[in-house]
């Protein structure tokens, strides 16, 4: 009889507010293996993993460790059960040495005094086990990004974890650094640790994993094993025809516009004649290394790339959330460098970030969230009343089908409705360029369609739309053309018949793999 | 928590106030249930009400201020110094006091909004500097003589049986309240306070908004400081510092009574009156003075606790 799975999650359900983050999550991780988890963003990967690591309590379903059912109340309980998670963003504690970071929270002590000698030996043993040659006494601040990740990995293992959950451990790493980290991961597996490995880099999954769980729309939909795990199979598993039907196809763009005669080439040709609404030249930043991009009126431009490729930063520069390191944005014939979203809005560029809690004031009424950007038409001689606000908000809210929610706090609305309100804000602000970072993340299918229709309608009104999305199907369906960012540069551009989910995934994978 | 209990608790602070007044009236009918008691409560509350209205704006924008008490004292000192030592007429002297306070408020805002210094530390530093300036200016001496008659009449005058100070405090509370509720900048203050990132992305220049909030706080502190000197008919060192903690108590007590869950000057005023009434009543009951400290602390803690738990379930 085979040993019980190191970690078993069955029928996991998790709701946030009214929305399901996870409807039916399953995960079975065999001991001493690397188990991949793939799926589009918003599929519930993170939620499933956080349930497994004790960060979230599921609403339903069971968690079993080594065949024993457990209730994990908090990360500490999970650690005691032998499960450690290394989140995507988690970083080392600066100012401390490697050994202090590795042993953090688990310092060997006698009468409350840290036994430094014992600690050093244990840390050294842990580092050796995963084949990492770093001096335990070195300060972490001086380490390269990959070595800092390895230190984090050692921390997870130091506490004696037998299951290690890694959420996109290589996302922010350059290729050779990623390679070194992967060797460490393999060494940890060979030392007997079961590893749950989340990544959008399918090549890594293909190489490392002996089994893969596929999630979509909050449910585990497939499990691949052994030779069945190929990059192609993973793309097919993640990009399904079903998902394609859920989104508006590019053909319907012209249908929305009233004429169905436009072929794709016409649409592209048509937009090429339009005036440039915003022109980016030589934009650099933390992740960006010189991006040139023209955005034309009436055009939907998709931006696509892996984590760390600079997609979000590009959108934030355009929206004035962060200033560019170098380069500029030309609007209305004048090259500008926005320092505040206010500057961008004044030039007709509205921005919506991916996290709706960052864009919306959840505890404020819907009407206020809608109107906050520009109150000139609401105020009379500088004075605003709730009644004037309600009157000003009514037409927009009626159009969104939310007329009766004007006084509710934004936080009481579903994710989809929140996003509609925030989109309504951009429309009201009379922006000529609307910049949307992953506008449908965590939104149900119906609201997603409505958001897509809104995006198309914005373009048909002659506005330019720049949109990033973690799901390639969405970009392929909505955008007129998509630029692929790799390591902070435009690496490819796809449009017309060449623009499909498969080609997008392929371009991103190929360009990312290309040596620099 | 059940809905019924929740809706009872929502008005718990008002209920507690009514109950408290009823108890005082029952126990001291001849003393407490007098117009003169109401008059003295309102009069005593006036200076604190003005300072607390300013603090309310700073709390509404999501910041903290430990300096407004010192700024009040500083502004009062500047006014007295200008009138007594420099011989400047009342109105320019008052303007000078306002300018001095606005400068201090501007430094607060600059440090916090633009310098990204944590408000607690930035305003602590400014408060200390301002207190030092006040003491340097006045040489640590109390001043009784030479304060113009006109300056004292600001608080000595009466209208319809109430001191002018009460009207001034009501006007300040109403003006700041209307500003926050009914003007575009006021709404931007609340927007910034409820989510700075969200407000910024909506196109609000949140740094400016926070700067403005500190300026309004300082303006209110200046008015409070001037009233303090006028009421006392003198300058005495570090007079404004005593405003600091009661103003926070009032703001949070008022906040826990506010159905909107926001800081608002009108509710803050209620908080000031609540505490003033309690202090007056307890004195009339002739309880030991430690009882006042104890009860005030308990009431504040419980009120905020209840408001928190009610709003979490809402």
Structural class of chain A: alpha/beta
Proportion of residues in extended strands of chain A? 15-25%
Total count of strands of chain B: 2
Low-confidence stretches of chain A: 241-269
Report the average pLDDT across residues of chain A. Answer: 81
Taken in chain order, the helices and strands of chain B follow as HHHHHHHHEEHHHHHHH
**Bulk shape of chain A:** globular
The major β-sheet of chain A equals: 6 strands, mixed
Structural class of chain B: mainly alpha
Mean pLDDT of chain B: 89
Of all chain pairs, the largest interface belongs to: A-B, 31 and 19 residues
Q: Determine the number of helices of chain B (DSSP H or I, runs of at least 4 residues).
A: 15
Give a quick summary of the entry.
Chain A is α/β, with parallel strands linked by helices. Chain A contains 20 helices and 22 strands. In chain A, 48% of the residues are buried.
Describe the structure.
The complex is a heterodimer of chains A (516) and B (314). Chain A has 20 helices and 22 strands. By secondary structure, chain A is an alpha/beta fold. In chain A, helix 17 packs parallel to helix 18. The two termini of chain A are 48 Å apart. Mean pLDDT of chain A is 81; it is low at 241-269. Chain B is built from 15 helices and two strands. The longest helix of chain B has 27 residues, at 206-232. Chain A binds chain B through residues 319, 321, 340-342, 345-346, 351-353, 357-364, 368, 372-375, 378-379, 382-385, 425, 429, and chain B through 182-184, 187-188, 190-191, 194-195, 197-205, 261.
